[in-house]
Design brief:
The chain is mostly helical and 1057 residues long. Helix content is 62%, strand content 4%.
Length: 1057
Amino acid sequence: MLQPVALGRELEWIVARILRNVALIERHLDAAEKVRAAILRADTALALQLLKDAPQSVGYTLANTSLQIALTQVVSGLEAQKDLAASIRRDGASPILQFLSFHWSVRAEDNMSPISFAADVRRRLDSASAGGTLRASLEFQLLSQVPTIGNENELLASCNSDTVIDAYEVLVTLATAVIAQARPSSLQFISAIRRLSENINDARLLRLLVLGPGSVRSPFASIDYRSAALSRDGSMPIHTPDGLEEVFAAANLRGATVGKDVEVLGRIEVALSGLRGIDNTAVIASQSLAKLGLMFSHSPIGQWMTAVASAYAPRQVPFSAFNDGQRFVNDTSVLEALSVLDADGRTKYASQIADHFGSISPIAEAAKIVSDVAYTPTNILTEKAAAYLGLWGAVLAKSKSEILARSEAAAGQGQREGVYHYVLALLQQGHTEDALRYAVSLLFKEPSYATVLPLDNLIGAVYPDDTNLFPHLIETPLLFWFYSEHVSAAHLSYLSYTAEDYVAAMGVRRPSELVDAATVGPPAYIGLFLSEVCRQQTMRLFTVFATARELEDERIAICQLLARRDESVRDAFENEARSIVTSRLVQEALKQLQASKMSIDQEGILSWARRRLGEDFVRYKALAAGGLAVVDEAYREALFDALKSGEFPASLYDVPENEASALFNSLVKRLVDRCAFDPEHGLDCYLSLRIRHGTMSGLLRSAAEHEKVVTRRTSDTGTYRTNTYWAAALSESVAPDTWSLFEDRLAAFSMSFDELIAEFTNKYIQVLRDEKPDALFDVRLNPISIFAIATEVNQDTTFEVFAHKCIDLFWGRVGNSLQDLKRFVRTKMRDQFVKLFERLEQDTRTEIGLAPLSDAIIRARVGTEAALDRVSGWFELPAPSTVLKLTLNELVAVGLEVTQRFHHDFKPTVQMPLTDIPPLTGALQLFSDIFFVIFENVYTHCGSTTPNITISADLQNNRLSVLVENSVEDASCNEALKQRVDRAREKIVSGAYLNDMTREGGTGLPKLAKLVNYKNDARFLDFALDIDRKRFWIEFSLPTHLLETPHREEDDAAALG
């Protein structure tokens, strides 16, 4: 694109170019008027045909292409619109038209909001370092955004490469903004528009001159609906509205009547009919109109909709010269509509409008021009209309006292414009406390006023420069709460500060003490303050609370207080208090599970040791008593000296071998090896159950799966599934051949990702032995460590004491390995995953259409690095913890939370037993493993991330039985899945699963069999897929003595609390 020159020169060039093509411009305007009329008659088929035929008379233009894409989306839906956009690319359009048509297609999609679209466009322009003329052109074509003051020449310069029709439309749109905003360059644009108006019959040019210092007459049009909306007579016409302002008036009088969602006029009417309210309907209406305005931004209809949507957007100034000017220029009936002129009473209506508006308003001046006669004020307008127009005039006149009076009257009638300007006027007059009280009173009655009130202005006045001007008013924290709930979370920290300020101002330390304060504000306000403001996330910044436990206790106290104050809400707050206690137990349980990744079943190990090593230990003590000691007193003293100095001489390794030393050495090594390798109770078993199988893979894959960057293998061929998500998301921006190549690249990435996880788990997260030479858990014993234990064993030492010393020695060796494992995860593992992601992300840079995927890859990489940090945290020695008593419902909640940490999209509806069983003691580890396997199985095979799960339980005769049922989607509930379930049952019943899991623990249902120790006759496990009911069920039972904690002496039933 050419670089811009001075504004005057750019205007001269573009005007001269347009004047050389007047006939072409006239044909374009004639065709555009026919399209506009067809849309307002709801004849979109004709409108589309006119746009399709337009190139034959005026050639291809950006404006018509954009309008055709938007209209196709509204009328025929996404697929037809995408086909149209694709055909533009296939038909050999210019690169810039291909680029723009793609983005016009994206912004037309129903799920694309103007805000998110604009943010995405600006981000891409920033990343491409686009500026000057190119940026001005793209922001105008895609966002309908005109340059800022002083940069108008950049947009005009970009028109040199556009068709003359597009250049003309750019000039008219830019002139509207410049003249309506009274920019310094207004006179230059007015001069250019005057020259064009002398040669081109475009009503917009005449209205632009009316907005400026000149004056011209404008043709009349129907204004019946506007008259009915504003006059005391109020008789409603029955004919079709003529013009957009008439459609607006008709929509306010009678609501939407077209009622066809696929028609443009129907959507416009629905949006317009909902604008004047204060609830969320008005917000949705303004957003819908803004979306339509952006889609049709290359037409007067779209620019009019954008102006109206801006005037009614949440918390925006209802009156502005720019929006008024946009509406005025882009609708043929706006002059007459706003001046409420009809055939019999133009003079009377014009006089009343002018009386309310004053001479400053271009609309009032236009009314005088149209009537062209002297006037006398008369009471023709309704009281509400008079208040509305009077406020409008006061705002345009910038009269603070007049605005305050007029806005108070309009606010008293419930008009959103009055409410907005009344608060604003109070602030401008310095009545901040009055504004605060008034605004909160409205919000308390109807929170939807948050969409109307100028809350940002109010917050700035109430809390200027980080200073709370009204700490003693309960309205202050309530204002911030309403803002946080209904606007944004931008001021959440200030909600905490103002809440604490108010509590302190009342002379108490905690919110639960407010009932004892002398004055705490209106009872209704204090109820809202305690129930909604004083929640844990708000009170966490209170200086009085030092721990999370104190926060929870305070919220429980508040719930108890609220339950006593109001019988009607007692159940709700009592349930909340109970849920806090339950959540506390669940979080404590999760902490214990996090610390239990490094674990052994010590009781199981000791039971084995008593049976297998007890007699040998007695024999060793007999040998020692007979004089065959492993070490003597001199060795003991030398060892103590070495420990003090940190230097170990070679002589400490030189211990004479005899029968006693050989036996002692064997006892220690066998017990330590059992701690490491016992197939059911040892460290290697727990590494398999809690890290290697499923857990690590689920955590490391979670971020990449969330971003849809990796897929899983198919069960039949073992190949990786097609990435259908990105294939659909990028179908319009990436050519099929290019995507086919990158689809293979994603499959290769998924394979490499899983291979990395498999390498780490199979090679490194293992206990060192001959078949695992790269393992990082090394429990091999130094001879000195064995001799050290020998120095502490004498004739009084029991086998229990000896065994615990050996277990302590084992954990000492594990502790040394854990430091190596942490370094390994933080360095080698992280580096390899980062390189894998970086190579994939670099491959996406070769194709601009892959930018969304590139962003997802970056997010997945960051998430995977965070997951590696969590993996690193697993490698800690088990810490002593309190023994928790947990109900079955709480144990289920723990298992579900653990599963959701790996699968963030897993959100089942879980129905628990209505009457819970008594609390279980010592059940956390076992049941968390069991329910993790069950929920993981549901997530993997049910075909939905939101299945229904029903859990029932029964406790009889010291046996706990649990039945878990879950729904299965139609697509997944088939004979192939049933056969797979049947094979798993056969494998378990036959005992074949034991051979598969001697080392690794297995996954899925066989893993569950191992957890419940199915081979033991005292346990029960069964499961099946019911295709007819589309349900899968698992039932298991355990004897209650398993749920006792070590060293408890109570009977089995007492273990249930």
